[in-house]
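Crash report, auto-generated. Payload:
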Amino acid sequence: MLARLSRKAFPKALWVYHANAGACNGCDIEVINVLTPYYDAERFGIKLVGSPRHADVILVTGAVTRQVAPALRRLLEATPDPKLVFAIGSCACGGDMWFDTYNIWGGANKVIPVNYYVPGCPPRPEAILYAVAVALGLAPKKVAKKEQSDFPRFEEPVSKFVRSS
Amino acid sequence: MFKGKIQEALICFAHPRVTLKYPFEPLEPPEGFRGRIAVEVERCIGCGGCANVCPSRLIRFYDEGDRTRMEFILDRCTYCGRCADVCPENAVTMTKEFETATDDLRDLYIVQELYMGTCNRCGRCFETENWIDKIPTRRHREGARFLGPATPHTEPIQEVRR
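Recovered output after restart:
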């Protein structure tokens, strides 16, 4: 539903502002890699801009540090509506291995509302491209919550449960 | 000078375009790529080795009576592959699945329940030799209210509650 809504809200080219909220530069390199001719996100009209006032989409990389959190909030206020926020990398999704550190808020969604999450450390350029395709409605979402159980089902034979040693 | 331009043009014509058609065509990541982890619930014995070594502490174990509930909160997974390395039964494997972009973090969770034997004394879960040993004993059925001696698991069972 969000994909259909975003296609309606952003019918033309998406302009992207890239906000580094304490990333290690790995995700930033992959984001720039997506814009190169090999992966070529610019064929979907995606373009990096220098100011959040021009942007439709904000890419947040990095676990949000305590220092940068107010700046990130102000950055979101400066962006005109409608806007999308992408969290790129495991740091921005959930805080990675710094999720409980004293100076880190543990993910972008603790500070600002996030629309799409791209986990990975760093995510492959294809994964970022796939997130763009999901946001534009070109590809379906592929992951779902897995709930699996070891509990016995009664139609299974007894020999499965007794190990012969 | 002009000859050089013609040579450049010929080179450009000779080479096909390099841009991937990726979102419209499937793409296989290279050998050795570590993607999202997959857990085979049939093989897992609930030893907790993966939770011990995970640097992001995203694997959680809860001992709840006759079951062990395991939660893999993969939103902060680093894809380091330590859980797959340490798993004695090779239940945790790294797949090549990289298309994990989602709009809901709950899509990245793996929640699984294991049917385990329960220790008569301390109440913690363990994997038994035979499946039949996992059937709960009197101590477990009545929980902390039962204060008598711990019973052997060969005691005949009046009722099995599931």
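Post-recovery validation: Chain A has a mean pLDDT of 85.
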